[in-house]
Amino acid sequence: MYTLIGTYKTRAFRVAWMLNELGQPFEMDPTGPRDPKLFEINPSLKVPVLKDGDDYIIDSVAIIQYLADKHGQLTAKAGTIQRAHQDSFTQFAVDDVELTVWVAAKHSFALPAELRVPDVKRACVFDFDRAMKSLSVRLADRPYVMGENFTVPDLLLGHCAMWATGIGWTIPAGNVAEYVARIHARPAFQATLSARKAAA
Ligand SMILES: N[C@@H](CCC(=O)N[C@@H](CS)C(=O)NCC(=O)O)C(=O)O
Q1: pLDDT digit string (tens) for 148-190?
Q2: 73 CA to centre of ligand 1 in angstroms
Q3: CATH class held by domain 81-186
């Protein structure tokens, strides 16, 4: 069985969601960020970490893509044009969307108080809005970014959207809001949300 190290408040949420999508049982080790005991596994002291057998995998995107490849679900095959397009959306989710929310979060609570620059958040909102416009065009009338099938980048974008709304940002009405609602209606997302509430 997999062990997922991290708490539901962190990016461990997205890994738990992925495991639930795949129907893979796992146990949760609720070690929080910056716990010194993480050092042996991840010198950055960051979570999530996935323990698979005797191995530890760090970085949520690497973990999620690994799980998709390993279980042959929610991904195009490596080495195909479809996978290149899928990875492009994954990179978009991380660079254009997650970064804006994460920088804003860092300057709200994650950084030591004396290092926070509250005005940075205005620039983050500007970049987030630009990313949402781009997503709207790239998504067009497809249910998921790759078409009919839910894949890795949809999960990442759905998680970032949860973070964004959690800090009061607006998902634009129209195809993007409908897309996010579709992703958040997935049973595996709802199950993960319930587990997060139960763990709080
Ligand atoms: N790229 C990494 C980022 C991991 C990360 O920053 N995790 C946060 C929690 S969501 C953390 O552990 N932060 C501790 C820190 O920044 O010192 C991933 O996707 O897993």
Answers
A1: 999 999 999 999 999 999 999 999 999 999 999 999 999 999 9
A2: 25
A3: mainly alpha
